[in-house]
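Extended Data, panel c. Modelled sequence:
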Amino acid sequence: MNQTFEKVFDYVNNLTIIDTHEHLCEENQISSSPDLLSMYLYHYFRVDVLSAGLGEQRLQQVLDTRIPVLDRWKIIEPYWEAARMTGYGQSLDIAVRKLYGAERIDGNTIEDLSKQFALANQPGHYKQVLKEHCKIEVSINDMAFAVNPLFRFVDRFDYIMNMQDPQDLIQFGQEQGIMIHSLQDFDNACEAYLDKKIQAGIIGLKCGIAYNRSLSFSKVSKSAAEEAFIQIFDRKNCSDTNRRILQDHILHHFLALAERREMVIQFHTGLLEGNQHILENSNPLRLNNLFIEYPNVKFDLFHMGYPFHHVIASLAKMFPNVYIDMAWAHIVSPPAAVEMLSEWIETIPENKIMGFGGDYCFVDGVYGHQYLARKNISKALAQKIEDGLMDLPRAKRIAKAYLYDNPKALFS
């Protein structure tokens, strides 16, 4: 197994890949004095140290850059150690090992690492990490900004679905050159908005509304949607029921628009980032009706649906327009990622799986994540070679499909 893995990993580790999902801001928005602990605890590992018992008050002390970094480290050290072996923790140690030459983040290295980090995180760091170290041809970002050869963009339209103030609705219409007085006006504004975004270069849509509500989207009648819109627009009744009816209508409207334009839509499914959420809201099974109603929309389901990963496998097997995306997945649970890859190889056509999306707000994490992704894919494929299911050339073909060919084909 070790020799087989090394042969597969040697190939996979040198592949140029496509990254299906990031949250990276423009490089010029990074602080002129970036702080390693603040950046590395911006998300993900922050969840693990809080889960380990750090507490929000002590976390704020750790993030306070006025306190010497070694003193801050002493506060967080026992919780960092408790979470070090999680995928989030592994990713950070892998990153500093490659990017800054430290074996790991600890009391012996934190001061020097902090200095190196501040020096490195300047204009040009993105290109060095993403292109040179990660071998990423392009990353799909859901924060659109100026044209940049490192990125393509999807548009996250959750904020439109969450509008409930009449002034927000009116302003949204004005931005599209449409005066909004009715639901039809609002629908027209949504279409104008989407076409404007396409003209600006977006290559798909993203829906992350599972953080706010269930992924169950009913097909509401036009009259029910119009009544809910009027109630909200006239400030008569902004109840949760009316908001949900309008949200359901907006989602279906965007899917109809996307279908006519042959677009991909990415959905957040499964685990929700943070420490306090309703997990059942993000069960991908709740999207089942949409796959049937919009057969020409390509649904890119995120995060391998974890912990609903067997559900997402069944959906991708059933529907030609449903794809599995492993954005975030390899750091959420590395063993589950290997387990599911092993299952999918023998369950789902190999052109249905997107093998990697970094899903980070800071670029160092992307390096650690892509390394784990390459390792996990290699482990699953090496085991299939050992089992006699495939030979090395077939394993290489599948790896390249997951990490490059499939996302390139999906997003054209």
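The domain at 132-410 is CATH 3.20.20.140 (TIM Barrel). This feature is highlighted in the accompanying rendering.
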